[in-house]
Design brief:
By secondary structure, this protein is of the alpha/beta class. It is globular, with a radius of gyration of 18 Å. Strands 1, 2, 3, 4, 5, 6, 9, 10, 11, 12, 13 and 14 form a twelve-stranded mixed sheet that branches. The chain has a single domain, classed as Rossmann fold, CATH 3.40.50.1820. It contains seven helices and 14 strands. The protein starts with a strand and ends in a 13-residue tail after the last helix.
Length: about 290
């Protein structure tokens, strides 16, 4: 795999952690009033993975506020979506101004549900598909951003809507050791992996979802509770507008929170606040050696 990270107007990165990976950076500023009000610096960045340029929006908190424990949040758009729209909808940099928030842009990807010919942008949902191009992108971004901003690697999170939520579940399966928690929205995890590492999960689901059926998402809750050794009975955790969140405690420190609403396949109002709250409650244990992939 050949990976080249590019930054448009500033900054150089130290050599990458993977010997076969070459990283450089290119950045262009794309400010947004909501982010400006929180002091975030917003830029468009590029990573080249296997010869393909991948574009990403990165929102940075002020330099004086960044530490080794600064959270790193990846937010993946749905199929046919775009990074700019994902940012406008989710706005994690507003809800969590201390975090580095990353909104990647997907490539044309086939989706059996809505786009079998692969004419719209999206993410792989199975390990090995499309040469693992999106997992490789995640690897490149994690290595680059952790190194550039001297992050301790204990506070990395993945969230996303629909196809982006499916990809967050795939990252749990394939890169779980790099994550502190995930927060899928309108997604499913239907093929459990026996040796999966327990991981805190917050999942947002609409009862009237016409695409990712609520019954599929209920099966997902069963699979996650089994993987994370959670209780079968939940207890109230939070409410946010029309969202009701239930906590299933885990004997392995990897609880599940289900967030249910009466709507359909949308990224509902209030989801960002609840996902952010959950992420803040979970970090990986301190380690003295690099976390393996």
């Amino acid at each position: 795999m050949k990976v080249i990270g590019i930054v448009l107007t500033c900054a150089c990165l130290a050599p990458p952690t993977h010997p076969a990976t070459q990283l450089s950076n290119r950045t262009s500023d794309t400010p947004n009033s909501a982010s400006v009000s929180t002091g975030a610096s917003v830029s468009k960045r590029e990573w080249t993975v296997d010869g393909v340029v991948r574009t990403v929006i990165v929102c940075l908190p002020p330099a004086d506020n960044r530490t080794a424990e600064t959270p790193l949040v990846f937010c993946w758009h749905g199929h046919g979506g775009a990074a700019v729209h994902s940012r406008a909808t989710a706005a994690f940099e507003v809800a969590w101004p201390e975090a580095i928030v990353v909104y990647p842009q997907g490539l044309k990807t086939a989706s059996p549900l809505v786009d079998p010919e692969g004419k719209k942008s999206g993410w792989q949902t199975t390990a090995g598909n499309d040469g693992d191009r999106d997992i490789k992108l995640y690897d490149a971004m994690v290595d680059s951003l952790r190194m550039e901003y001297k992050l301790d690697g204990r506070h990395t999170y993945s969230t996303g809507h629909s196809n982006g939520g499916f990809f967050s579940y795939l990252l749990w399966q394939t890169r779980g050791a790099t994550l502190a928690a995930i927060g899928p929205v309108a997604a499913a995890y239907l093929k459990p992996t026996a040796d999966i590492k327990p991981l805190p999960v917050i999942h947002v689901a609409g009862k009237d979802d016409p695409l990712v059926k609520f019954s599929w998402q209920e099966r997902t809750f069963v699979n996650v509770r089994a993987a994370d050794a959670c209780t079968s009975e939940g207890k109230p955790w939070a409410t946010e507008g029309g969202l009701t969140a239930t906590l299933y405690e885990s004997s392995k420190g990897a609880p599940l929170v289900t967030v249910i609403h009466e709507g359909g396949h949308e990224f509902p109002k209030g989801a960002t606040a609840l996902i952010t709250r959950f992420f803040k409650e979970h970090a990986q244990p301190a380690v003295t050696t690099p976390v393996p992939k």
